[in-house]
Design brief:
Elements: E1 5-10, H1 16-27, E2 31-32, H2 35-44, H3 48-51, H4 71-76, H5 85-103, E3 106-109, H6 113-116, E4 123-129, H7 132-142, H8 147-169, E5 181-184, H9 189-205
Parallel strand pairs: 1-3, 1-4, 2-3, 4-5
């Protein structure tokens, strides 16, 4: 069978990571999420102590002040830029993500992987979303967020993810035309994984 690459963008609390993990297990292919941070740090010989602060989910105020405009395009065009640690990490992540995709099938969560692999015909780009009530239940159950702070934490985290994605890609995070498939995880984690698996199997047949 042909290889298939599945990228997963997700709202915080939507269960995107759980769906991706289940999907990778069902398909018998590698799963990458936070592993990409360490791999990228090693790739660029970056300071591992700073990496966690620069993750796409970080609460670092840096992301709130980004001007936007598609950083990735100018970075890869060879522009003379003074690269921040965050920029260096992002470029290393791009290299790692492309290497993973070149080597074989995989499920990759976040890190603008939908954009990084947009030219890969075997790639399926999925966006997972959910209603606020469902997301609140998940973040309080699995991430230890207090019920009183859940809604605010979800909104803040998604703003950070959107700002990160929009800045580095020049595209709007979560916009339907940038994805192959959008799924409301309210149908269930296993059910959502089954839908994506069916699509992946069809892609592999072609």
């Amino acid at each position: 069978m042909k290889k298939v690459i599945i990228t997963i963008g997700r709202q915080y609390g939507s269960g995107g990571r759980f769906i991706g993990k289940r999907l990778a297990e069902e398909l018998g292919i590698p799963f990458y999420d936070r592993e990409l941070i360490a791999m990228s740090a090693a790739e660029g010989n970056l300071d591992a102590n700073l990496i966690e602060q620069l993750d796409e989910r970080s609460s670092n105020r840096f992301f709130y002040s980004l001007p936007g405009g598609g950083y990735i395009n100018s970075a890869f065009s060879g522009a003379d830029l003074q690269l921040s640690m965050s920029d260096k990490l992002f470029l290393m992540q791009c290299k790692v993500i492309k290497r993973i995709a070149d080597e074989g099938s995989a499920v990759i969560v976040g890190r603008c992987s939908d954009y990084v692999l947009k030219e890969y015909k075997e790639a399926i780009h999925v966006f997972i979303h959910a209603d606020m009530e469902s997301k609140i239940k998940r973040v309080t159950s699995f991430y230890g967020v207090s019920p009183e702070k859940a809604a605010a934490t979800i909104t803040k985290t998604d703003k950070i993810r959107a700002k990160y994605h929009n800045y580095y890609t020049g595209r709007k995070w979560g916009t339907a035309e940038n994805y192959t498939l959008a799924i409301d995880s309210g149908i269930g984690i296993e059910e959502a994984a089954a839908v994506i698996k069916k699509l992946a199997e069809e892609v592999r047949k072609k």
